[in-house]
Amino acid sequence: MKLPKTLCCTAVALLTVLPILAQSPTAPVPGQPEAIPPLLRAKPPAPEPTTPPARPFHDSRYGVSFTIPPAWNITRRDGDVSTFNLDARNAAHTAQMRAVATISFNPHPSSTFSGALFYFSVAPHVTANQCAAEAIARAPRTTSTLQIAGVPFTHGYDEHGGICTESRDEIYTTARNDSCYRFDAVINNFCGGDVSGVRDITDRELDDVRRRMQSILNTIRFDN
User: Fold this and answer.
1) How many Å apart are CA 193 and CA 200, to the nearest integer?
2) CA distance between the termini of the chain
3) SS3 of 80, please?
4) Fewer beta carbons under 10 A from the terminal one: N or C of the chain?
């Protein structure tokens, strides 16, 4: 029995279309990786903010300059964004906070990172030995010596926390003009894991924050 002409054409059309449907994006192709649904695809990192722009800081009284990176804020008033004595715990009681720069965004929002602060302070009437001892923080931690803008600095650190390391302070001190010039690079963190359920900050992410702080340290200059 012969099919009507219209039915024959319909059957031919279906035979032509079916192989194409079999190769649709929703069906895996043999020998090729399965397509990832758009909602599950990794998103590219968002561009970092650029405001406020990079700008210079200068303390005319003590003759110190450095550069504030883009998207960092700076204030000369203690207590505006932090408390100096809580972050620089072993600074001399006569230390005067001259400025503090703070990052204005979170470069690692899925981690336990909670902030970065860069302090500049000066303690008058402090001997060179007393100034170097501030970088030791707590024994038996040791210190090293490095050059910043041609000036020798003593470098040490302090850290504290209960369940985890909640704060780490990289300390840099040098004696000048019968005073102790001190820079503190503080990274704050909150406890994750079983405590908050947030992923702990990784070593790679910590190194990234340290590099940002080091970029400020590298721009320090002293007036002649």
Assistant:
1) 6
2) 108
3) coil
4) N
